[in-house]
Amino acid sequence: MARRLVLIRHAKSDWSEPVSDRERPVSSRGRRQAPAIGTWLRAQDMVPELALVSPARRASETWDLVASGIGDAVSRDGAPPVVQRAVEAYTFDGDDLMRLIHTVPIEREIVALVGHNPAIEELLEMLTGADQPMPTSSLAVIDPGTIPWSELTAGARLVTAGRPSDGPLRALA
Q1: Which of 47, 61, 117, 129 could form a disulfide with 75 if both were Cys (CB 3.0 to 4.6 A apart)?
Q2: pTM of the full predicted structure?
Q3: pLDDT grade, residue 2 (50/70/90)?
């Protein structure tokens, strides 16, 4: 299997608590939907070797829910995903996420990035040229081809996108 970048938009957040943006938790709907992302990744044999996760509470909680769906499955290197709380992922700018992707070690084959809109949608469009909506608890799988992570700026292919909790995802290419 080729390398893959899995963009994950954080799960629906709970606005009922009077907390800062960074401290906003996942809502009950988000807690129901997000594990399906992990279940889908596991079923596709696409368990990430590396998960770059925004330190915002809703993104961190989303990853924990995704990981619960992955369960005890391991990545291709035989280990569970390495989770990196990436301050750079707490952004609303796709260029910031692009710079973060450029830091991924070349040997990593499947990388997940859990972040926020509009940055996730902007990065997806920069990489693939696709105008793909990314609602909460959705994912987009991108095939970067042979371009090294450090040089990836465009020319990647959008493989699939959607919200696994809504039903089967279809291949886009």
Answers
A1: 47
A2: 0.96
A3: confident
